[in-house]
Amino acid sequence: MNMEEVIMGIIINAGDARAYAHEALTKANSGDFQGASTSMELADEAIGRAHDSQTSLLHREASGEKLEITALFVHSQDHLMTAISEKNLIVQIIELRKQLQPLLDKLPNS
């Protein structure tokens, strides 16, 4: 697989991970914690694929292959780190929402 294909794999999978994480938050906000858990599992899988692509580049360079660092490569790393950070924050927000839900359920008209 050429460098551009690997880089695009990182970007696509990182984007998918962010989308799944935000989907999980939306589900949690509506009280669907099982659906949120399923979406977070999908986010984890997408981050895993992006990380595997990143690792393949690191292995190539460690094996002596000279890799060209392009703006697109840097962009892919930004996407991956943002996806990981957002997913980690969303996990914490969902946990807070789980703790808050019993209180919300006691409110009239909830």
UniProtKB/TrEMBL annotation:
Signal sequence, start to end: none
MF (Gene Ontology): metal ion binding; transferase activity
InterPro entries in the cross-refs: PTS_IIA_lac/cel (IPR003188), PTS_IIA_lac/cel_sf (IPR036542)
Regions crossing the membrane: none
UniProt cross-references to Pfam families, sorted A to Z: PTS_IIA
SUPFAM superfamilies: Enzyme IIa from lactose specific PTS, IIa-lac (SSF46973)
Active site: 75 (tele-phosphohistidine intermediate)
Cofactor(s) required, per the database record: Mg(2+)
Cofactor remark from the record: Binds 1 Mg(2+) ion per trimer.
Residues holding Mg(2+): 78
UniProt-listed GO biological process terms: phosphoenolpyruvate-dependent sugar phosphotransferase system
Keyword Magnesium: yes
Keywords: Magnesium, Metal-binding, Phosphotransferase system, Sugar transport, Transferase, Transport
Modified residues (Phosphohistidine): 75
Protein name from the UniProt record: PTS lactose/cellobiose transporter subunit IIA
